[in-house]
Write a structure and sequence with these properties.
The chain has helices spanning about 15-25, 30-40, 80-95, 110-120, 150-155, 160-165, 210-215, 235-245; strands at about 5, 40-50, 50-60, 65-70, 100-105, 120-135, 140-145, 175-180, 185-190, 195-205, 225-230, 245-259. By secondary structure, the chain is an alpha+beta fold. It folds into 2 domains: about 5-100, Aminopeptidase (3-Layer(aba) Sandwich), CATH 3.40.630.30; about 130-250, Aminopeptidase. The longest helix has 16 residues, at about 80-95. It is elongated and about 65 Å long. The chain contains 8 helices and 12 strands. The structure holds coenzyme A. Coenzyme A (COA) binds near residues 81 and 105.
Length: about 260
Protein backbone atom coordinates (compact mmCIF):
# COMPACT_ATOMS: atom_id res chain seq x y z
CA UNK A 1 0.00 0.00 0.00
CA UNK A 2 2.87 2.42 0.75
CA UNK A 3 6.57 1.85 1.02
CA UNK A 4 7.50 4.87 3.13
CA UNK A 5 5.70 6.91 5.76
CA UNK A 6 7.50 9.94 7.19
CA UNK A 7 6.66 11.87 10.36
CA UNK A 8 7.67 15.56 10.32
CA UNK A 9 10.27 15.14 7.54
CA UNK A 10 13.00 17.81 7.42
CA UNK A 11 12.04 18.75 3.87
CA UNK A 12 8.92 18.36 1.73
CA UNK A 13 8.75 18.78 -2.02
CA UNK A 14 6.17 21.61 -2.11
CA UNK A 15 5.13 20.90 -5.73
CA UNK A 16 4.51 17.22 -4.91
CA UNK A 17 2.55 18.22 -1.82
CA UNK A 18 0.28 20.58 -3.76
CA UNK A 19 -0.25 17.97 -6.48
CA UNK A 20 -1.24 15.38 -3.86
CA UNK A 21 -3.49 17.86 -2.06
CA UNK A 22 -5.23 18.83 -5.31
CA UNK A 23 -5.92 15.15 -6.09
CA UNK A 24 -7.32 14.60 -2.59
CA UNK A 25 -9.16 17.92 -2.21
CA UNK A 26 -9.88 19.33 -5.69
CA UNK A 27 -11.90 22.22 -4.22
CA UNK A 28 -9.55 23.06 -1.34
CA UNK A 29 -6.10 24.19 -2.50
CA UNK A 30 -3.56 24.85 0.25
CA UNK A 31 -1.99 28.32 0.19
CA UNK A 32 1.61 29.13 1.09
CA UNK A 33 0.79 30.28 4.64
CA UNK A 34 -1.32 27.19 5.34
CA UNK A 35 1.43 24.94 3.94
CA UNK A 36 3.93 26.50 6.35
CA UNK A 37 1.42 26.08 9.21
CA UNK A 38 1.07 22.39 8.39
CA UNK A 39 4.85 22.02 8.44
CA UNK A 40 5.01 23.62 11.90
CA UNK A 41 2.70 21.00 13.48
CA UNK A 42 2.65 17.18 13.41
CA UNK A 43 2.32 15.81 9.90
CA UNK A 44 2.79 12.47 8.21
CA UNK A 45 3.47 11.83 4.54
CA UNK A 46 3.04 8.50 2.72
CA UNK A 47 4.95 7.56 -0.43
CA UNK A 48 4.68 4.70 -2.88
CA UNK A 49 7.52 4.23 -5.40
CA UNK A 50 8.67 7.73 -4.40
CA UNK A 51 5.27 9.23 -5.31
CA UNK A 52 3.54 11.19 -2.52
CA UNK A 53 0.20 9.43 -2.12
CA UNK A 54 -1.27 10.93 1.02
CA UNK A 55 -0.75 13.02 4.11
CA UNK A 56 -2.24 13.82 7.50
CA UNK A 57 -1.91 16.93 9.68
CA UNK A 58 -2.59 17.18 13.42
CA UNK A 59 -2.35 20.34 15.52
CA UNK A 60 -2.86 20.58 19.27
CA UNK A 61 -3.11 22.89 22.25
CA UNK A 62 -2.82 22.04 25.94
CA UNK A 63 -6.13 20.17 26.17
CA UNK A 64 -7.14 19.06 22.67
CA UNK A 65 -5.79 17.91 19.34
CA UNK A 66 -7.32 18.76 16.00
CA UNK A 67 -7.13 16.73 12.79
CA UNK A 68 -6.50 19.48 10.26
CA UNK A 69 -6.35 17.39 7.10
CA UNK A 70 -6.15 13.76 6.01
CA UNK A 71 -6.07 12.73 2.39
CA UNK A 72 -5.13 9.77 0.20
CA UNK A 73 -5.03 10.09 -3.60
CA UNK A 74 -8.03 8.40 -5.28
CA UNK A 75 -6.03 5.57 -6.91
CA UNK A 76 -4.67 4.45 -3.51
CA UNK A 77 -7.86 4.56 -1.44
CA UNK A 78 -9.43 1.63 0.45
CA UNK A 79 -6.05 0.03 1.08
CA UNK A 80 -5.74 0.95 4.74
CA UNK A 81 -3.64 4.13 4.39
CA UNK A 82 -6.28 6.40 5.96
CA UNK A 83 -6.56 3.88 8.75
CA UNK A 84 -2.80 4.01 9.34
CA UNK A 85 -2.79 7.84 9.43
CA UNK A 86 -5.64 7.81 11.96
CA UNK A 87 -3.84 5.31 14.17
CA UNK A 88 -0.65 7.38 14.12
CA UNK A 89 -2.46 10.66 14.85
CA UNK A 90 -4.43 9.16 17.74
CA UNK A 91 -1.29 7.58 19.22
CA UNK A 92 0.41 10.97 19.03
CA UNK A 93 -2.60 12.69 20.64
CA UNK A 94 -2.61 10.11 23.41
CA UNK A 95 1.09 10.64 24.09
CA UNK A 96 0.36 14.38 24.52
CA UNK A 97 -2.31 13.58 27.13
CA UNK A 98 -5.06 15.65 25.49
CA UNK A 99 -8.66 15.40 26.73
CA UNK A 100 -10.16 15.04 23.26
CA UNK A 101 -9.41 15.02 19.54
CA UNK A 102 -11.75 16.78 17.13
CA UNK A 103 -12.14 17.49 13.43
CA UNK A 104 -14.46 19.13 10.91
CA UNK A 105 -15.89 17.16 8.02
CA UNK A 106 -18.49 17.97 5.39
CA UNK A 107 -21.65 16.27 6.58
CA UNK A 108 -22.11 14.45 3.24
CA UNK A 109 -18.58 12.98 3.18
CA UNK A 110 -19.74 9.45 4.02
CA UNK A 111 -16.39 7.75 3.41
CA UNK A 112 -14.45 10.00 5.79
CA UNK A 113 -17.24 9.87 8.38
CA UNK A 114 -17.23 6.04 8.26
CA UNK A 115 -13.46 6.14 8.87
CA UNK A 116 -13.79 8.55 11.82
CA UNK A 117 -16.68 6.59 13.36
CA UNK A 118 -14.59 3.42 13.17
CA UNK A 119 -12.09 5.25 15.41
CA UNK A 120 -14.75 6.25 17.94
CA UNK A 121 -15.51 9.79 16.73
CA UNK A 122 -19.09 11.01 17.09
CA UNK A 123 -20.76 14.18 15.81
CA UNK A 124 -20.99 16.83 18.52
CA UNK A 125 -22.42 19.68 16.50
CA UNK A 126 -23.11 20.80 13.00
CA UNK A 127 -22.78 24.17 11.32
CA UNK A 128 -24.45 25.03 8.07
CA UNK A 129 -23.62 27.72 5.55
CA UNK A 130 -26.57 29.18 3.68
CA UNK A 131 -26.35 31.58 0.73
CA UNK A 132 -28.92 34.09 -0.38
CA UNK A 133 -29.27 37.27 -2.40
CA UNK A 134 -29.41 40.41 -0.31
CA UNK A 135 -32.64 42.29 -1.00
CA UNK A 136 -31.80 45.81 -2.15
CA UNK A 137 -35.16 47.40 -1.44
CA UNK A 138 -38.57 46.59 -0.09
CA UNK A 139 -40.43 46.97 3.16
CA UNK A 140 -39.42 44.95 6.14
CA UNK A 141 -41.20 44.41 9.44
CA UNK A 142 -37.79 44.09 11.01
CA UNK A 143 -34.92 46.55 11.62
CA UNK A 144 -31.26 45.72 11.96
CA UNK A 145 -29.62 47.77 14.72
CA UNK A 146 -25.92 47.69 15.66
CA UNK A 147 -25.85 46.34 19.23
CA UNK A 148 -23.89 49.41 20.40
CA UNK A 149 -26.83 51.64 19.36
CA UNK A 150 -29.57 49.61 21.06
CA UNK A 151 -31.71 51.30 23.72
CA UNK A 152 -30.76 49.94 27.16
CA UNK A 153 -33.98 48.01 27.75
CA UNK A 154 -33.57 46.12 24.45
CA UNK A 155 -29.85 45.56 25.04
CA UNK A 156 -30.78 43.98 28.39
CA UNK A 157 -33.10 41.53 26.68
CA UNK A 158 -30.34 40.25 24.38
CA UNK A 159 -29.05 36.78 25.19
CA UNK A 160 -25.66 36.80 26.93
CA UNK A 161 -24.08 35.15 23.85
CA UNK A 162 -24.89 38.25 21.77
CA UNK A 163 -23.39 40.59 24.34
CA UNK A 164 -20.22 38.49 24.55
CA UNK A 165 -20.07 38.58 20.78
CA UNK A 166 -20.29 42.37 20.79
CA UNK A 167 -17.14 42.56 22.91
CA UNK A 168 -15.16 40.81 20.13
CA UNK A 169 -14.29 43.17 17.29
CA UNK A 170 -13.38 40.37 14.99
CA UNK A 171 -13.20 40.39 12.03
CA UNK A 172 -12.39 44.13 11.84
CA UNK A 173 -15.26 46.31 10.57
CA UNK A 174 -17.83 43.69 11.56
CA UNK A 175 -21.12 44.90 13.01
CA UNK A 176 -22.96 42.96 15.64
CA UNK A 177 -26.55 43.48 14.62
CA UNK A 178 -29.69 42.87 16.63
CA UNK A 179 -32.87 42.29 14.62
CA UNK A 180 -35.78 44.17 16.13
CA UNK A 181 -39.38 43.27 15.28
CA UNK A 182 -42.47 44.44 17.19
CA UNK A 183 -40.21 46.19 19.70
CA UNK A 184 -38.40 42.98 20.70
CA UNK A 185 -35.16 41.21 19.76
CA UNK A 186 -35.89 38.60 17.08
CA UNK A 187 -32.27 37.52 16.57
CA UNK A 188 -28.69 38.69 16.29
CA UNK A 189 -25.70 38.19 14.04
CA UNK A 190 -22.16 39.32 13.50
CA UNK A 191 -22.16 40.76 10.00
CA UNK A 192 -18.98 41.36 8.02
CA UNK A 193 -19.82 43.71 5.13
CA UNK A 194 -16.69 42.92 3.11
CA UNK A 195 -17.53 39.27 2.36
CA UNK A 196 -20.48 39.79 3.08
CA UNK A 197 -21.32 37.15 5.61
CA UNK A 198 -22.98 36.53 8.94
CA UNK A 199 -21.45 34.26 11.54
CA UNK A 200 -22.82 33.47 13.98
CA UNK A 201 -26.45 34.11 13.03
CA UNK A 202 -29.10 33.24 15.60
CA UNK A 203 -32.89 33.61 15.50
CA UNK A 204 -34.44 33.84 18.93
CA UNK A 205 -38.04 34.56 17.92
CA UNK A 206 -39.50 31.85 15.70
CA UNK A 207 -42.55 33.90 14.77
CA UNK A 208 -40.66 36.55 12.78
CA UNK A 209 -40.39 36.06 9.01
CA UNK A 210 -36.83 35.03 8.09
CA UNK A 211 -37.00 37.06 4.86
CA UNK A 212 -37.84 40.22 6.85
CA UNK A 213 -34.72 39.67 8.92
CA UNK A 214 -32.58 39.12 5.81
CA UNK A 215 -34.00 42.34 4.27
CA UNK A 216 -32.94 44.29 7.32
CA UNK A 217 -29.29 43.28 6.76
CA UNK A 218 -29.22 44.69 3.21
CA UNK A 219 -28.60 48.31 4.24
CA UNK A 220 -25.36 47.35 6.03
CA UNK A 221 -23.82 45.70 2.94
CA UNK A 222 -21.19 47.49 0.90
CA UNK A 223 -22.38 48.85 -2.41
CA UNK A 224 -22.33 46.15 -5.08
CA UNK A 225 -22.27 43.22 -2.65
CA UNK A 226 -25.32 41.12 -3.24
CA UNK A 227 -24.61 37.57 -2.07
CA UNK A 228 -24.96 36.96 1.63
CA UNK A 229 -23.42 33.93 3.33
CA UNK A 230 -24.91 32.92 6.65
CA UNK A 231 -23.09 30.41 8.82
CA UNK A 232 -24.77 29.10 11.94
CA UNK A 233 -24.55 26.16 14.31
CA UNK A 234 -27.79 26.95 16.15
CA UNK A 235 -30.10 23.96 15.43
CA UNK A 236 -33.32 25.99 15.61
CA UNK A 237 -31.94 28.70 13.30
CA UNK A 238 -30.78 26.00 10.85
CA UNK A 239 -34.27 24.52 10.65
CA UNK A 240 -35.92 27.96 10.33
CA UNK A 241 -33.61 28.99 7.45
CA UNK A 242 -34.13 25.63 5.73
CA UNK A 243 -37.92 25.86 6.19
CA UNK A 244 -37.85 29.37 4.66
CA UNK A 245 -36.20 27.90 1.55
CA UNK A 246 -32.82 29.62 1.98
CA UNK A 247 -30.26 27.75 -0.16
CA UNK A 248 -27.76 25.59 1.70
CA UNK A 249 -24.14 25.84 0.56
CA UNK A 250 -22.64 23.14 2.78
CA UNK A 251 -22.96 21.54 6.17
CA UNK A 252 -19.95 20.81 8.37
CA UNK A 253 -19.99 18.32 11.21
CA UNK A 254 -17.64 18.68 14.16
CA UNK A 255 -16.72 15.23 15.40
CA UNK A 256 -14.99 14.48 18.64
CA UNK A 257 -13.34 11.54 20.37
CA UNK A 258 -12.67 11.76 24.09
CA UNK A 259 -9.37 10.60 25.54
C1 LIG B 1 -11.16 9.67 3.79
C2 LIG B 1 -9.87 9.06 3.22
C3 LIG B 1 -8.67 9.77 3.84
C4 LIG B 1 -9.83 7.57 3.60
O1 LIG B 1 -8.58 7.06 3.19
P1 LIG B 1 -8.40 5.53 2.77
O2 LIG B 1 -6.96 5.25 2.65
O3 LIG B 1 -9.24 5.23 1.58
O4 LIG B 1 -9.03 4.80 4.05
P2 LIG B 1 -8.85 3.26 4.45
O5 LIG B 1 -8.59 2.42 3.24
O6 LIG B 1 -7.85 3.17 5.53
O7 LIG B 1 -10.31 2.93 5.02
C5 LIG B 1 -10.52 2.60 6.37
C6 LIG B 1 -12.00 2.43 6.61
O8 LIG B 1 -12.67 3.69 6.48
C7 LIG B 1 -13.97 3.47 5.91
N1 LIG B 1 -14.00 4.10 4.58
C8 LIG B 1 -13.00 4.73 3.96
N2 LIG B 1 -13.42 5.21 2.76
C9 LIG B 1 -14.72 4.88 2.65
C10 LIG B 1 -15.71 5.10 1.67
N3 LIG B 1 -15.46 5.79 0.54
N4 LIG B 1 -16.95 4.63 1.89
C11 LIG B 1 -17.23 3.94 3.01
N5 LIG B 1 -16.34 3.68 4.00
C12 LIG B 1 -15.11 4.16 3.82
C13 LIG B 1 -14.13 1.97 5.77
O9 LIG B 1 -14.67 1.50 6.99
C14 LIG B 1 -12.69 1.54 5.62
O10 LIG B 1 -12.48 0.21 5.97
P3 LIG B 1 -12.68 -0.93 4.83
O11 LIG B 1 -11.98 -0.50 3.59
O12 LIG B 1 -12.08 -2.14 5.48
O13 LIG B 1 -14.17 -1.05 4.63
C15 LIG B 1 -9.85 9.16 1.66
O14 LIG B 1 -11.07 8.62 1.17
C16 LIG B 1 -9.68 10.56 1.13
O15 LIG B 1 -8.57 11.06 1.00
N6 LIG B 1 -10.80 11.22 0.79
C17 LIG B 1 -10.74 12.57 0.20
C18 LIG B 1 -10.26 13.58 1.19
C19 LIG B 1 -11.18 13.65 2.38
O16 LIG B 1 -12.40 13.64 2.25
N7 LIG B 1 -10.57 13.75 3.57
C20 LIG B 1 -11.30 13.91 4.82
C21 LIG B 1 -11.69 15.34 4.95
S1 LIG B 1 -12.39 15.68 6.52
Amino acid sequence: MFDRLEHNPATIDAAAFHKTNDLCFPAEPVGRVEFEQYRSVDHWIAYNNDEMIGFAVLSHNSHSAHIRRIGVIPSMRRRGIGNRFMTLMLERAKSMGVEYVDLLVQSDNRGAIALYEAFGFTEVDQSVQFVTTLPTSGRSECTGVPVADLPTELARSLPRAAINLASHHDPPRAHVLAFIADGAVAGYARFAPDFPGCSPFVLVDQAVDVHDILSSIGEFALLGKTRLKITTDDPRTISLLAAAGVEQNYALSRMERRG
